[in-house]
Specification:
Radius of gyration: 24 Å
Strand order of the largest sheet: 5-6-1-7-8
Shape: globular
Number of strands: 13
Largest sheet: 5 strands, mixed
Number of domains: 3
Distance between the termini: 42 Å
Helix content: 25-40%
Structural class: alpha+beta
Strand content: 15-25%
CATH topology of the largest domain: Alpha-Beta Plaits
Length: about 425
C-alpha cells in the first residue's frame, strides 16, 4: 500500500504533473470498435490505396512495424498484417471524450495532442492516496469511457518534460513515477528518439559529438554546446540534461487568443493535369478552411495557394484590402487571382490553400453590400446543417460527381481552437 504524504501548511506543495498517453491510439480505437481486429497486427493508412503507415497497433509494433514505413514493408515483416483506413471522426470524438473526463478530474488540464494530455495533480492531491493511485484511477476511467481494449501509459513527475519522457519509455499500460532517486537513471537510459522536441537531424548532430542520451549533456561544457547548437538549443539541451522543463513545451501548451491562420492540403494518388479536378479539389479545400474560420468567429485577408509536382512546386499569395469569411469569397480569390498566375508547367500531386492574418469577426468592420449579406445568410444556414450532420452535407455543384475530401485531424492537434470550439 502506497501511503499519502501530508503537505505542511507552511510550505507550498511540490508541483506534480501527470502525463496520459493512450497506447497505439488510432489502431486501438479501431480494435475497440471491431473486436475481430483485437490481438492482431493492424496498420492504419490515411485512406484506401495509400501506401504510408501512419499508425500501428501494439501487436504490429512488436513485429517491428513502425509509423512511416510502407504497407509493403509491413507485409514483409508480418504477412498477416491487416490494413485499415483511418477513421478521423472516431479519433476526434474519443479525444473530446477524454477532454471531458480529464477536466472532470482536475481543474488544470492541457490537451497536448490527440492521444496525449497533461493533468495537474497538485490541486487535487488531497483527494487521492498518491499520484500513482490517481494514475491507476485514470486508467480505469478511460476503460469505462472508451472501452476495455483501450490502455494507456501514465507518467508522473515534477514537470511535463519528465512526465512525458517516463510514459514514452515505460511498458504499455503502466503507471510510472519519476522521483529524485530514479530521475538520473531515466535520463541516462532514454535515447533521443523518445525525447520530445528532438528531431532526427538534431539527434544525429548530438550523436556526432558522442551524445546519445540526455544525461550525457551534463558533461558537455557550455562553450561547446553554444558552438555546436547556437544560443537557443544550447540552453534547451542543457535544461533537458538536467531534467528541467524546456521552453518548447511552454510554447506547445501556450493558449493563443485565436488562431493566426487556417490551411488545408491534400496529397493525391497520382500526378494530375486535369483542370476540372484541380478546380474541384481547390474548392473542396477552401470550403473546409472557411467553415473552420466561421466556426471560430474569425475572418482573414491574406489568401495563399501552393501546388507541388514530382520535382517542381509553385505558390503565391495576395493580401486583400478587406476581410473574407465566406467560401465563395475566398475561392474567387484562389481561382481567379492566384491560380491563373500559375504557368501550368507541371502535373500536380499536392495542393494547399490557406487564409492568414485572421482576426475576430467582431473586430472587423461590417460590410453593407446586399450580396455580402446574402452570402452571410446562406453560410449561416449551411453551417447550422453542417454542425448537426457533418461537413459537405450541403455543398456547391463544383463537387458533384467528385470524391469529397473529408476533414482530417493531425496527431499533434494543431487546430485545437477549432476542434474544441
Amino acid at each position: 500500500m502506497i501511503e499519502a504524504v501530508a503537505a505542511t501548511n507552511d510550505q507550498p506543495p511540490t508541483q506534480t504533473i501527470v502525463h496520459v498517453d493512450i497506447n497505439s491510439y488510432f489502431a486501438t480505437l479501431l480494435q475497440q470498435e471491431t473486436p475481430a481486429l483485437r490481438g492482431k497486427p493492424v496498420v492504419i493508412v490515411k485512406n484506401v490505396g495509400r501506401t504510408c503507415v501512419i499508425a500501428a497497433s501494439k501487436e504490429a509494433k512488436k513485429l517491428g512495424i513502425k509509423t512511416g514505413c510502407t504497407v509493403g514493408d509491413a507485409h514483409m515483416l508480418a504477412p498477416n498484417v491487416i490494413e485499415m483506413p483511418a477513421e478521423f471522426d472516431l479519433y476526434l470524438s474519443a479525444t473530446r471524450e477524454l477532454k471531458q473526463l480529464f477536466e472532470s478530474l482536475s481543474p488544470q488540464v492541457e490537451i497536448f495532442s490527440l492521444d496525449e494530455s497533461f493533468i495537474h495533480f497538485t490541486p487535487i492531491r488531497q483527494l487521492y492516496l498518491s499520484p500513482v493511485a490517481f494514475g491507476q484511477h485514470i486508467q480505469q476511467k478511460i476503460k469505462q469511457r472508451l472501452g476495455s481494449w483501450v490502455t494507456c501509459n501514465v507518467g508522473i513527475a515534477k514537470n511535463r518534460f519528465l512526465a512525458k519522457l517516463s510514459s514514452e519509455v515505460a511498458a504499455k499500460g503502466s503507471v510510472t513515477q519519476v522521483t529524485q532517486d530514479n530521475q538520473a537513471a531515466l535520463l541516462a537510459s532514454t535515447t533521443f528518439d523518445s525525447v520530445c522536441g528532438i528531431g532526427f537531424r538534431l539527434g544525429r548532430r548530438l550523436e556526432q559529438i558522442g551524445v546519445t542520451v540526455p544525461y550525457q549533456i551534463n558533461f558537455l561544457p557550455d562553450d561547446l554546446l553554444f558552438e555546436q547548437f547556437g544560443p537557443y538549443w544550447s540552453l534547451e539541451l542543457r535544461k533537458m540534461g538536467r531534467g528541467e522543463e524546456p521552453a518548447l513545451l511552454d510554447r506547445a501548451a501556450e493558449e493563443l487568443p485565436h488562431m493566426k491562420s487556417v490551411g488545408r492540403s491534400i496529397t493525391g494518388y497520382k500526378l494530375c493535369r486535369n483542370e476540372t479536378v484541380l478546380k474541384s479539389t481547390l474548392y473542396n479545400l477552401t470550403a473546409e478552411v472557411m467553415y473552420k474560420v466561421r466556426k471560430m468567429k474569425l475572418a482573414g485577408r491574406l489568401v495563399s495557394i501552393y501546388l507541388l509536382g514530382q520535382d517542381q512546386s509553385w505558390g503565391t499569395h495576395v493580401t486583400l484590402q478587406y476581410y473574407v469569411r465566406h467560401t465563395n469569397e475566398m475561392f474567387k480569390v484562389i481561382w481567379q487571382q492566384l491560380y491563373q498566375r500559375w504557368p501550368k508547367n507541371f502535373a500536380v500531386i499536392k495542393l494547399a490553400v490557406a487564409l492568414h492574418l485572421l482576426k475576430p469577426w467582431t473586430e472587423v468592420q461590417d460590410c453593407w453590400f446586399p450580396n455580402w449579406w446574402k452570402q452571410e445568410r446562406v453560410a449561416t444556414a449551411v453551417d447550422s446543417i453542417t454542425q448537426k450532420y457533418g461537413l459537405f452535407k450541403v455543398t456547391s455543384g463544383l463537387l458533384l460527381n467528385t470524391q469529397i475530401i473529408r476533414p482530417e485531424v493531425t496527431g499533434f492537434l494543431g487546430d485545437k481552437k477549432f476542434q474544441f470550439a
